[in-house]
């Protein structure tokens, strides 16, 4: 079972209710669990330690971040170097996969979430992408949830490069791309149709599962929608009315 993190397991630094109970039950039943986040700012260890801090029991290898997936993609596709528009977490994961982070003449360009994005970084990325270097994006998320609401996501950084080059990424390694599921299935030695994805986002978690051909479960955890009934088709409303009558 593959769990999304932001908005599913936690909101910022707050753990969602009953996470411990659910994970304990899955563990007791012998169902393997791992965690998948489009976070490209943090490294695998950062997220692992955050989950440990919540008192969850897991291994480092159970955590998949877009930063790690970027490094994994570069390694698996034979790239020796990359210009990385991103923060230390992304650079460390890429270098941890044996790919050098360089400023000039890279084999490809990787764009991730970067709170220190500036004109110089945009210019370097622009020049490399215009020079026909493969353009790898960590994800295209418009925003992500924190306790106080939404913040701009990695889509803002990717959009900055597409906006000035007119070129879209050749590969997106995060959700809703099926790349994460392929890597997880390969690592765990399981078939895609035996996997269930649990997440709060239709456009990323559920879309990835649908494209990959695995089961999915949408969780509605935000306060506004928490008490809202969810139906799969409009006629189910009749059943709800009859059930209440
Ligand atoms: Mg989420």
Task: Write a concise keyword list for the protein shown above.
14 strands, alpha/beta, Rossmann fold, binds magnesium ion, 2 domains, 245 residues, 9 helices, globular, five-stranded parallel sheet, 38% helix
In short:
This protein has 245 residues and is of the alpha/beta class.
Distance between the termini: 37 Å
Describe the largest sheet: 5 strands, parallel
Bound compounds: magnesium ion
Order of adjacent strands in the largest pleated sheet: 5-4-1-13-14
> Which ranges are low-confidence, i.e. pLDDT below 50, for 5 or more consecutive residues?
none
Residues in helices, as a percent range: 25-40%
Order of helices and strands: EEEHEHEHEHEEHEEEHEHEHEH
Mind explaining what this structure looks like?
The structure is a single chain. With 245 residues, the protein is of the alpha/beta class. The protein folds into two domains: 2-38 and 176-241, 3-Layer(aba) Sandwich (Rossmann fold), CATH 3.40.50; 79-172, 3-Layer(aba) Sandwich (Rossmann fold), CATH 3.40.50.1000. The protein has nine helices and 14 strands. It has a five-stranded parallel β-sheet with strand order 5-4-1-13-14, sandwiched between helices. Helix 3 runs parallel beside helix 4 (88-96) and helix 5 packs across helix 6 (155-165). The model has no long low-confidence stretch (mean pLDDT 94). Magnesium ion binds at residues 4, 6-8, 199-201. Magnesium ion binds next to loops.
